[in-house]
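RECORD TYPE: inverse folding
INPUT: structure tokens
STRUCTURE:
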């Protein structure tokens, strides 16, 4: 019994060494905050006392988030497929941090559709996913690295575990595997500057913007634009 109590005390002491303290003034920038995991995380960190800067793809998402958060939470519109939008968001974050640097960058973006057999797809179908969920996240990370280095902050990349299993064609799995590789190399390189890089492979959450009806709609769209030769090679039964 005494050994168990002693082990528990040691565990709590070690755990508390990693607890972040003095949260006031620590800025965290989160992408993908319109709905889902990014939205919930922005609200939770706001309640904890962080200075949250939430990036939303729509003005509606920004307004709804501000309505249920404290006045310290700020929002900025962000289209990860647009370099100009990324540049404007970086300027906004720089202004909000006011020389203190960025304590945290949480990258959360889900460009999913279209998915389907690889030879049903065109290169623009890959771009529609990769430009958001891989290249866009990489671009905004690169542009925020000076602020992260200044605060000796951390990068947290949220990656859906579904993306680690390549069971269907398209850019979804490519984007997740790409973010894994980018995070692993960035972690090694940023260690010299005191910047931490983490991956959170989260589970299977239901997202409002992605459901079976949307995936089915895209599948039929892909099928209908195929040449007769490719459709005949698969057949209606396959569809």
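DESIGNED SEQUENCE:
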């Amino acid at each position: 019994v005494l050994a168990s109590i002693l082990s528990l005390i040691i565990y709590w002491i070690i755990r508390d060494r990693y607890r972040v303290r003095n949260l006031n003034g620590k800025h965290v920038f989160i992408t993908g905050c319109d709905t889902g995991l990014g939205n919930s995380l922005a609200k939770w960190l706001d309640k904890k006392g962080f200075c949250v800067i939430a990036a939303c793809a729509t003005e509606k998402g920004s307004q709804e988030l501000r309505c249920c958060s404290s006045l310290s939470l700020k929002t900025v519109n962000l289209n990860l497929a647009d370099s100009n939008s990324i540049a404007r968001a970086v300027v906004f974050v720089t202004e909000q941090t006011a020389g203190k640097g960025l304590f945290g960058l949480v990258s959360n973006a889900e460009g999913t559709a279209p998915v389907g057999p690889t030879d049903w797809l065109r290169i623009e179908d890959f771009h529609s996913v990769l430009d958001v969920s891989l290249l866009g996240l990489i671009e905004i990370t690169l542009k925020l690295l000076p602020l992260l280095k200044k605060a000796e902050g951390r990068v947290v990349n949220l990656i859906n575990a579904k993306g680690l299993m390549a069971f269907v064609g398209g850019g979804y799995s490519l984007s997740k595997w790409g973010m894994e590789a980018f995070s692993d190399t960035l972690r090694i390189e940023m260690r010299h500057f005191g910047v931490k890089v983490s991956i959170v492979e989260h589970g299977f959450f239901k997202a409002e913007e992605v459901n079976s009806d949307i995936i089915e709609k895209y599948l039929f769209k892909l099928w209908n634009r195929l040449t007769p030769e490719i459709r005949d090679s698969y057949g209606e039964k396959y569809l």
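NOTES: The beta strands are 27-30, 51-56, 74-77, 104-107, 154-160, 196-202.
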